[in-house]
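Entry type: protein chain
Record version: 2
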Amino acid sequence: MATLEEALRAKLAAVPRGVLGWRQFENVATEVLRHLFVPPLADPILQARSYSGIERRDAIFPNRNHGMPNHWGRLLQELEARMVLFEFKNYDSEEVGKDEVNQTRNYLTRPLGRLALIVSTKEPNHAAHLKRNTVYSEDGKVIVFLNVEHLEEMLYMKERGEDPADLIMDAVERFYIEWE
């Protein structure tokens, strides 16, 4: 009998890449993140829209870890990450670029905080990395890039009894090291 983590990895692998599988990717990735991070994060708010309806964020996980000695408490204090934003990009041939970074940047309002994660099936291109650095320089907002392999690794970590948020913290710290 397969573990929940094995079943989730199989679901991730079965998602068709590209436009045809965008909704399925979003649903499965959210299911994975919910399994990994709820608790300590609260259940996500999906397809959250701004009041005017102009902005639509894929998944926002409320972070209520005020004063908690864990990674999410640290990110809440350090980046005011009251809400942890996840954006999903199920690309087949195109790459995550500066436009996706800019879109995510605009979603990070003061009440949400200064942390967002773009989860994609493709690696971000050079322009995306440069734009991410500019966003941090100008706004102090941290945008972390994750891919399907990262989700899979966090599922393995959970299976081994480790904290999958270690990978998120490693990615944030790696960003700080690479930023220029």
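Comment: The beta strands are 45-49, 56-62, 83-89, 115-120, 142-147.
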